[in-house]
Amino acid sequence: MKKWTFGVDLGGTEIKLGLFDSQLQKHWSIPTNCEAQGSFILKDIAKTIKECCDEYGITMDTLKGIGIGVPGPVLESNIVKHCVNLGWPRVAVGTELSKMLAELFECSPEDMRVMVENDANVAALGELWIGGGKAYNSLVMATIGTGVGGGIILNGKILSGASGGAGEIGHIICVDESDVDGRCNCGHKGCLEQISSATGIVNYAKRYLEHAPEVSILRNRLRDAGDITAKDVLDAAKAGDMAAVRIMDKVFMYLGKALAGICNVVNPECVLIGGGVSAAGEYLRAGIEQYFKVFAFAGIEDTPIRLAVLGNQAGIAGAAYMIISDK
Ligand code: ZN
Fold it and tell me: How many C-alpha atoms does 296 have within 13 Å on its Cβ side?
């Protein structure tokens, strides 16, 4: 009986792997070797999966397949168009990895099932399976970290889009020009992530503090430590520092507005907030919810806004669940 599935989360510095049956049985990671245009990466993944199979006595008869999340747009659950931080040009990840694994398992590549999707989309699917979205079939997830990523799951399936670009929540242009400085990494101006990513929060806070009249512990921190982090801003806001409260109020307004816009169109069962910044917890969630309700269309405003719970294991879970849920 086929019962085992591997979930792989391919990142720029580390490759996380998980072995699942109905739940996670083992997880580990290996470094990402980006040398030679990332040409060793898939071989390294095939090798470590084979080693785990040998350890657990997993054969072709008991292996369902391998799901993998990659940091770039993906076509047909197989082809990655480009991954800048891996050095990859266009790579048929699914086809290549099937071949490499088939060689190690001495089977036909057609019998080795591999599915590939964008990493942020895969993380959203992981949260739907065993995380903050467990009770639902559809959700929108915003991942707020260094940038703002996202994933949309409809009827239990990832919405990847015609050219693999669906779910790029961070690049919705919704921020007034007066609230951002310079351009987003994508080349546009006014993207959501320019104000609401960890980097965006810090940039906005620094500009705000230049002109604001309020006394603020953030200004002291800038002077003493030379810099501030998004966590500093959130901690100060939670402690009642008025400048920090006003800074976060602006961030919450844009997040609430963008998420309400998405929900007006997609009408998911819930919205999840994940990523490093979501460690701020209930304060962040409630702040976003308050504005979400203001901007959402009638009937949409009660969509539950929840925190993601799987952290950096969402990727391996979602990757495995692509295979497990694929009939
Ligand atoms: Zn952008």
Answer: 25
**First vs last C-alpha separation in the chain:** 15
Residue-wise pLDDT for 75-92, tens only, equals 999 999 888 888 899 999
Residues counted in the chain: 327
Whole-angstrom distance, CA of residue 77 vs CA of residue 94: 7
What are residue 94's DSSP bridge partners? none
Rounded to the nearest whole angstrom, what is the distance from the C-alpha of residue 238 to the centroid of ligand 1?
28
What type of residue is 301? Answer: E
pTM summary value = 0.94
Which DSSP string do the residues of 241-294 spell out, in sequence order?
Answer: -HHHHHHHHHHHHHHHHHHHHHHHHH--SEEEEESGGGGGTHHHHHHHHHHHHH
CA 188 to ligand 1 center in whole angstroms: 5
273 alpha carbon – ligand 1 mean position (Å): 19
Q: Give the Å distance between the CA of 43 and the centre of ligand 1.
A: 33
Residue with tokens 């976003």: 288
C-alpha distances (whole Å) from 25 to each of 3, 6, 46, 67, 308 are 12, 10, 19, 16, 21
